[in-house]
Design goal:
This protein is an alpha/beta fold. The chain has helices at about 10-30, 45-55, 75-85, 120-135, 140-155, 165-175, 200-215, 235-245, 265-270, 275-290, 300, 355-370, 375-385; strands at about 5-10, 35, 60-65, 90-95, 115, 185-190, 190-200, 220-225, 255-260, 305, 315, 320-325, 340-345, 375. Helix 1 (about 10-30) links the parallel strand 1 and strand 2 (about 35). InterPro entries: Toll_tir_struct_dom_sf.
Length: about 400
C-alpha cells in the first residue's frame, strides 16, 4: 500500500477546505505523500471506479467536516471503505459541531477528531500521527501552518452570516440550474437570508423535498391554505420516502401539514374571492391526503385542519424555515404567494440574540398544530357529501 492519503469532502465549503489540507500536506511532506481528492481526477475518468480504487489504496482518510457536510452519506461511505481496507480515519472538524458525541446522527464520532478551533496544537498531533503511520517526516510545520490557517479561515468566513444549519439549502437555491431564484438573490443579513422571488413555486418545493430525501432530513412542516403545491402526484415519491423511512423504525420524518378548515373564518379570508374554485381545490387536497393511507401512512398523524386566519406561510425543511407574509389588496383580498419574496431562517434557538424569528415561527406553528383538528375519514364526511377526486 502506497503513502496515499484520501481527502473526503461533501458540499462546497468542505471541498474548498479539503483543497487547502491537500496543499498544506504537500508543503509539509513533499513527495512523501500522495494526496487524493476527487476534484483532481482527470476529465472523462470513471469517477466512481477511480474513487473506490483510491479508497482501497489509502492508508489514511482525512474527513473534512463542516456543519452542512456532517450528515453526508458520501463521507460515511468513503471512511467506511478505507477503514475496511485497513486504513485509519481522522475526522477534521472545521467548525464546532453541537453534540458531536451523538451516535444516532454522527457515525464518525467513533473516531477521535482533530478540531480546527483548537489551533495548531491539535493539528500538530495529527501530523505526528501521519509521520508515525507513513514513516515520513514533516518539514517547516510552523511556517506552513500560518499559511494554511489563514487560507482555511478565509474559506470558513465565506457566507458566515448565513446560519450554519441553513447553508446547504441556501447553496442549493443559489445554484439552482436555471438561476430561478437569482441573479439578484439572496440578500444576506445577519441571521436571515432573503430571496426576492420564487416562493411557493414548483422549483422551490422540489428542492425542499429533495433536501429531505437526499440529506436524511428529519422535519418537513407545511402551514398553508389548501396545500396544492405539495399534495399532488408530482410529490408521490416524497410521501413514499416518508412511508419507507417510517417502516424502518426510529424517528423517521416528522412531517406535518396544516390545511385550512373548509367554511372556517380562515378559509373565507384565504379564498381570494373565488370561493367555489378555492373550495374544490381544498377538497381535492384533503382527499389526496386521505388517499395517502394506501402508502401505509396515517392521515390523522400527518394532517390537521385549522380555523384561524393565517398570518404567514411557513415551510420547514429540516432545520431551515422559509416564510413569507400575506399581502392583501385594497379590498382585503389575499394576493398570490407564488413568486413572492421569502425569508430563510434557522429553526434553532439562538444563544446570543433575542432576534430569533425562525425559532418563534416554529413555536407559532406548534401552537396552531396543537389547536387544529386531525384529518380523518369521519371528519371528511362531516364536511363533504362524497369523495370526488379520490373515491
Amino acid at each position: 500500500m502506497s503513502n496515499k492519503i484520501f481527502l473526503s469532502w461533501s458540499k462546497p465549503r468542505s471541498k474548498n477546505l479539503a483543497k487547502e489540507v491537500k496543499l498544506f500536506f504537500e508543503n509539509l511532506f513533499g513527495t512523501g505523500v500522495n494526496m487524493f481528492i476527487s476534484s483532481g481526477m482527470e476529465k472523462g475518468s470513471l469517477v466512481d471506479v477511480g474513487i473506490h480504487e483510491s479508497l482501497l489504496e489509502s492508508k489514511v482518510c482525512l474527513v473534512c467536516i463542516t456543519g452542512e457536510s456532517l450528515k453526508s452519506p458520501w463521507l460515511m461511505y468513503e471512511s467506511g471503505v478505507v477503514f475496511g481496507a485497513g486504513g485509519i480515519i481522522i475526522p477534521i472538524l472545521f467548525e464546532k459541531i453541537p453534540d458531536w458525541h451523538s451516535w444516532i446522527d454522527k457515525p464518525l464520532v467513533r473516531y477521535v477528531p482533530v478540531q480546527y478551533d483548537k489551533g495548531k496544537e491539535d493539528f500538530l498531533k495529527l501530523i505526528h500521527t501521519i509521520e508515525k503511520q507513513l514513516r515520513i517526516k514533516a518539514l517547516n510545520f510552523d511556517r506552513n501552518w500560518d499559511s494554511f490557517s489563514e487560507r482555511a479561515s478565509q474559506v470558513l468566513l465565506e457566507n458566515q452570516s448565513i446560519p450554519l444549519e441553513c447553508k446547504h439549502l441556501v447553496d442549493k437555491l443559489k445554484n439552482q440550474n436555471d438561476n430561478y431564484f437569482t441573479p439578484d438573490s439572496p440578500e444576506i443579513k445577519e441571521g436571515q437570508v432573503v430571496f426576492h422571488r420564487g416562493f411557493h413555486s414548483d422549483p422551490l418545493y422540489k428542492i425542499l423535498t429533495d433536501n429531505i430525501k437526499e440529506e436524511g432530513g428529519k422535519y418537513f412542516w407545511y402551514y398553508g391554505r389548501k396545500g396544492s403545491k405539495i399534495l399532488k402526484r408530482q410529490y408521490l415519491g416524497f410521501f413514499e420516502y416518508i412511508s419507507e423511512v417510517e417502516k424502518l423504525g426510529g424517528m423517521g420524518v416528522d412531517f406535518r401539514c396544516l390545511l385550512v378548515m373548509p367554511n372556517s373564518m380562515g378559509a373565507k379570508k384565504a379564498d381570494r374571492g373565488q370561493e367555489r374554485k378555492f373550495n374544490l381545490g381544498l377538497q381535492e387536497s384533503i382527499e389526496y391526503a386521505l388517499h395517502l393511507k394506501n402508502l401505509g401512512l396515517t392521515p390523522s398523524k400527518y394532517f390537521r385542519l385549522y380555523e384561524n386566519v393565517r398570518d404567514c406561510l411557513i415551510v420547514r425543511s429540516d432545520n431551515s424555515l422559509l416564510s413569507s407574509g400575506p399581502v392583501y389588496d385594497t379590498k382585503g383580498v389575499l394576493n398570490y404567494f407564488t413568486e413572492r419574496p421569502f425569508y430563510v431562517f434557522s429553526t434553532l434557538k439562538s444563544k446570543t440574540t433575542s432576534e430569533n424569528k425562525g425559532y418563534h415561527l416554529v413555536k407559532e406553528f406548534e401552537k396552531v398544530w396543537k389547536n387544529s383538528v386531525p384529518l380523518t375519514n369521519d371528519l371528511f364526511y362531516e364536511l363533504y357529501e362524497e369523495k370526488v377526486f379520490y373515491p
